[in-house]
Amino acid sequence: MRNHVRAAAMLTILCGTPCGASEAPAADQKERAMVTNGMDEARFWALIEQFGRPDREARLAALRAALADLEPDDIQRFQAQFDRQMWRSYRWDLWGAAFVAMGGASDDGFEYFRAWLIAQGRDAFERVLGSPDSLADIAPNDADAMEFEHILYVAPEIWSEKTGKSPAEMIRFDPGSEVQSGPQGTPFREDDALLARQYPHLWRRFTSAGM
């Protein structure tokens, strides 16, 4: 099930709409536009932040219970807003910060890192987006603790359970003309001297050379 959810999410991001889907009628397009705009940001972040438990399983269970109380369209709006924040944070400068803090970050690792960063709440998320080196102020010492893969699947799984539909049919965030083929910005270079200059606080905290 989880692999199905993940595959559906990736296809939707790549295609903009579920791959293979026919063009929707005007009424359906209007509904899709309402959903892809996402849940109101304040409501979205309130749902993310109200379950600030240190235990991940407890946090996932609480979020799952909260989403299960929502109507399917609101679950889609929650996921669309989550997708939007994932898209906003798909940036090379943030990837470089994750690379230093985690001792490396693959494509999947960076995806799970961004999910973790969203789970830290709005203030932390926006602060790190504004200054990736400030990740040093909130990052745990354990690199594995900076990945939160399972939160990516909660809303699609709940929506699928409530509707009986495949996660591939879930309406997701559509960046429209802003879609990109890769991360925003300039790729970071895996060069110690450059990384130490770009991320001085992270470098001092997480590398043996900076200690």
UniProtKB/TrEMBL annotation:
Alphabetical UniProt keywords: Signal
Pfam short name (any one): DUF4240
Signal sequence, renumbered to the chain: 1-21
Source organism, top-level taxon: Bacteria
Residue ranges of every copy of the DUF4240 domain listed in the record: 39-158
InterPro entries, alphabetized: DUF4240
Record protein name field: DUF4240 domain-containing protein
UniProt lineage: Bacteria, Pseudomonadati, Pseudomonadota, Alphaproteobacteria, Sphingomonadales
